Amino acid sequence: MTANDSSSQERDFGGRKYEPENVELPPLYARPFHVWPALRYLFFDVLFPLGFIYIAMAVPIWWYLTPSLETMAVLEPGWIGLLWIRNCVILVLFAGGLHLWLHRLKKQGHQYLMNRNTLATDPKAFLWGDQIKDNMFWSIASGVSFWTGFEAVSYWIYASGRLPIVENAGWFIASIYILFFWSTTNFYIGHRFLHWKPIYRHVHILHHRNVDLGPWGGISMHPIEHLLYFSPFVLWWIVPVHPIVIIVTGLYQALNPAVSHSGFEYLRLGAKLKVSAGDWYHQLHHRYFNLNYGNKFLPIDKLTDSWHNGSEDSLQTQKQRWRTRFR
Q1: Which of 89, 112, 233, 254 gives 20 to 30 Å between its CA and that of 98?
Q2: What are the backbone dihedrals phi and psi of residue 75, each rounded to the nearest 5 degrees, phi first?
């Protein structure tokens, strides 16, 4: 990509320049439709690398870091508290590790940095006048609690015999894809609701104080927003799966935002290798608010005319939509 690439939007960070490419529809939805790119996207790109990482994490978590089914057959504070501690440690290691690597130690400098500014220290906007401390508080105190609560109820439903545990490998794979589509749909619907003015003013604004993003901002939300955000677990209260899918659901919901809100479009691994990290599509939502309510995996925004790909033409189209709708 060059400085003259018209498909990019250049931003200047006091001499540091990075040009994210405009957001394109995934091959699964692109027209004209091409079979092999669509299949590669569906069966590899969707899962690489984070999907594979969450599945790989979920197996030992289920074997070694989750109470027995016999223990979880009755809802009790003891084992639920152990789940909370386990989930808190996972989040601290994951989000905290990303923050340490990218924002404190600055191991890749400003390469692939999408933020306009450094993370804020604003006494009016954030608890203790510090964006990072504020984000950590809401992520742990509220976020981990709702994550754990939904997860605990899910285990209890299976452990108490209310639903059977399904151990079919084909259904396991299918349920992972169902999770991705269901989570994306749930996120879009809930997100549009959160942008209803009375709700935004009292609830969603807590998350949107983060204009420039860092890993701890991912699930830094109001408790009401956490209630909506972690509700994809409810699907497994109706549709039977293996408990490992429940763990993957928690990891996907809780850890994915730490990556997508990292502030860096790519994570550099060595001199030449890089993997996708921050989500420019969602970062545009934090910058302009009334667009990109969903995500690229299931581009509902394209159907509702709220899709912004990062280009100036696309932004002007959205501004015209705002003038028409919000005047």
Answers
A1: 233
A2: -70, 115
21: phi then psi, degrees, rounded to nearest 5: -70, 150
Cα(200)–Cα(182) distance, rounded to whole angstroms? Answer: 23
Give pLDDT < 50 ranges for the chain.
1-16
Helix (H) or strand (E) holding 56: helix 50-64
Q: Which two tokens stand for residue 42?
A: 């569906």
This prediction has a pTM of 0.92
Each residue's pLDDT tens digit, 183-242: 999 999 999 999 999 999 999 999 999 988 999 999 999 999 999 999 999 999 999 999
Please say whether the beta carbons of 112 and 119 come within 8 A: no
Residue closest to 200 by CA, chosen among 322, 282, 293, 114: 293
Task: Please tell me the predicted confidence (pLDDT) of residue 116.
Answer: 75
How far apart (Å, rounded) are the C-alpha atoms in residues 40 and 20? Answer: 23
Instruction: Give just the sign of the alpha carbon dihedral 95, 98, 104, 109.
Output: negative
Taking only the tens place, the pLDDT of each residue in 148-169 is 999 999 999 999 999 999 999 9
* Separation between Cα atoms, residue 327 and residue 318, nearest integer Å: 13
Give the dihedral of Cα atoms 323, 279, 45, 6; nearest 10 deg: 60
Q: Which residues contact 270 (CB under 8 A, 6 or more apart)?
A: none
What is the spatial distance between Cα 40 and Cα 140, in angstroms, rounded to a whole number? 36
Give the Cα separation of 296 and 215 in Å (integer). 19
User: Is the distance from CB of 294 to CB of 187 less than 8 angstroms?
Assistant: yes
The tokens of 277 are what? 């990290």
Q: Quick one: which of 6, 212, 24, 222 has its CA closest to 102?
A: 212
Mean pLDDT for the chain overall: 92
Residue 33 CA, chain-centre distance (Å), reads 27
